Amino acid sequence: MPKEKFDIINVASSDGCFDLQFRRDTRHERTGSPTYYRWKIQFIITMPKEQTAVLKKAKQMIGSGAISLAKNQARYSVQKLEDLAEVVIPFFKKNTLTGDKKRCFDIWQKAVAIVHQNKGKKINDWKKNDLLQLIEIHKSLAKYKTKPKKQKWIEMAKTLSKA
Fold first, then answer.
1. Is 61 helix (H, G, I), strand (E, B) or coil?
2. Long-range pairs for 116-125 at CB < 8 Å and ≥24 separation?
3. CA gap 118, 40 in Å, rounded
4. Which residues, other chains included, contact 149 with Cβ-Cβ below 8 Å and sequence gap of 6+?
5. Would you state the CATH architecture of domain 8-162?
6. Predicted TM-score of the model (pTM)
7. Mean pLDDT of the chain
8. How do residues 70-79 score in pLDDT, each as one tens digit?
9. Where are the domains of the chain?
10. Residues 16, 9: contact at Cβ < 8 Å?
């Protein structure tokens, strides 16, 4: 029986997600527990725990990221900004996605570029236009989610873009 060929595009299309979130983080270990707002961007593939081998193949093909296990789910994610910009985006430009996943990727990669160019800057020092673009990208990406969650802090992002 011939060995089944691994199709990373099919896996990414069916179980992958190009994620963009606006987050609020509180640093409880610091005096006064300061609160920070930030954009979090990542590429994720989730599967049942029994299919961890598929995620290992995906990680090997893409060349970065980490696999974690929780309850009955295995999760492969790439969260480092440099890896997203220099590994994931070139990988999916070379290995083209199709349909809605391609449209999602095309929008998401613009967000990666904006977040990458603002790396190391406090969010208050970002150009207003960059924040506004990310809010619009976030809204556009929601169209491609099967179960979009209401973002708790997106109103704060809008407030910051007006400051």
1. helix
2. 116/81, 116/82, 116/84, 116/85, 119/81, 123/36, 123/37, 123/38, 123/39, 123/160, 124/160, 124/163
3. 12
4. none
5. Roll (3.10)
6. 0.84
7. 87
8. 999 999 999 9
9. 8-162
10. no
